[in-house]
Amino acid sequence: MSLKEDIAKHKASLPLRYTREWLQKRFREFYTRAEPELPPRFTAREWGMFGWGGRLMQRHLAFQSEGELQARLAREAPMHVYHSVAYYTHPSAGRMDEKHWQAADLIFDLDADHLPEMELLKRGETTFGALMEIIREQAVQLVEDFLLGDLGLDAGDLQLVFSGGRGYHVHVRTPAVLELPSGARRELADYLTGLDADRERLLVDAGHTRKYGDKRYSTGELRLPATDAPGWQGRVARFTSAWLEEAQALPADERLARLESLQRIKTGAAKNVKLDGTPQEVFDALPRHMQIALRDAALSACAVYADEPVTGDLHRLIRLPGTLHGGTGLLARSVTLDELRDFDPYRQAIALGDAPVKVRCVAGHPVAMGDVASLKPDEVAELPAAQGAYFMARGFATLEIEA
Questions:
Q1: What stretch(es) of the chain map to CATH 3.90.920.10?
Q2: Are 3 and 387 a contacting pair, CB within 8 Å?
Q3: Among residues 6, 105, 109, 157, which one is catalytic?
């Protein structure tokens, strides 16, 4: 490499170096005053931290006091801070078989990257902010419908956390789940998706048999379950009832199009369908293929896509609430269920203040921080520190170096 090329490479690296230094300084200022939310029995957990500059995670850490942890955070100002979901006899042991596993919290990790709608984002048909809204709604559904509803858990046994990044973590600490094996935890994650549901049993088989000669045949008549039925039956009934009521509220010339919007329903197939009556009456009179299409639409709409490997991993490390996410600069923070209903992470999880900072967008396409701020390629903008940190931490911008 020539001297000229070496100088050019050095100059090109300066914005990245200064950006990392700026972020690290902001993190250090935060951790001098931070009060992280320690999990129960924190001295029995393994801890891990990511430093700056591409260093590997430091694992197998243990802390005997809150002050010891806070001192470490203030000294190192790490990019990421994690603790194990498990409780160990010897959490700082260097090998997993030496730690002596005792139990583990049950964790559900909801990440926007795991949504089916990610395909729409890749095609430019939606925004990441829209996906964040969907994953927030899924977190509410997970807690209300599945954990408090189907499983009958107590709200006091749950901790709801915005991850600081692309979604939410739900920690379950009721004693009944702490010693569940990995397979049982994975089954719970599968249950949320409805993929393993016995579809034939989700609707009520109201058919009867008729005899033709020496043989009997089932009429195969299907009925909609009661909306207060337990589990996935009730979920399918509530979705279907609401869907049909919305269709009934449409102008007459739009009702058929609504029915034909269902997957695998052919154009013209709904021309003789009547939508008068209660949702139960309408559904029960629908052709079988439309009933099946509505059932499948309910399964898709009501599914919650938790990261199954995270739920099933008895040794997983999870982000510590009250610490910063090094990939966004946002705060991982606990929220109540009521807060979660309208939580806006881009406004309610900022922690680096509003002192102005000038950044340059280095992304090859427009980028946004929800509906709070946005940048266009090569745009130079002065933003509050929390917003500038978001774009820089995500790699969308660099610190603008004044000449």
A1: 31-193+306-350
A2: no
A3: 109
In 3-state terms, what secondary structure has residue 172? Answer: strand
Please tell me the number of Cα atoms within 13 Å of 34 on its side-chain side: 31
- Candidates 97, 198, 228, 307; catalytic one: 307
> How many Cα neighbours within 13 Å face the side chain of 128?
15
* Structural tokens at position 80: 């990421």
Quick one: which of 144, 215, 145, 138 has its CA closest to 169? 138
What is the topology classification, in CATH, of domain 353-403? Ribosomal Protein L9; domain 1 (3.40.5)
Q: Which of 6, 97, 105, 111 is catalytic?
A: 111
> Is 111 one of the annotated active-site residues of the chain?
yes
Q: Domain 31-193+306-350: give its CATH architecture.
A: Alpha-Beta Complex (3.90)
Q: What is the pLDDT of residues 120-168, one digit of tens each?
A: 888 888 999 999 999 999 999 999 999 999 999 999 999 999 999 999 9
Say whether 342 is catalytic.
Answer: no
Report field, pTM of the whole predicted structure over 0.85: yes
- Tokens (6 digits) for 69: 């942890």
Does the active-site annotation cover 307? Answer: yes
The CATH 3.40.5 portion of the chain extends over 353-403
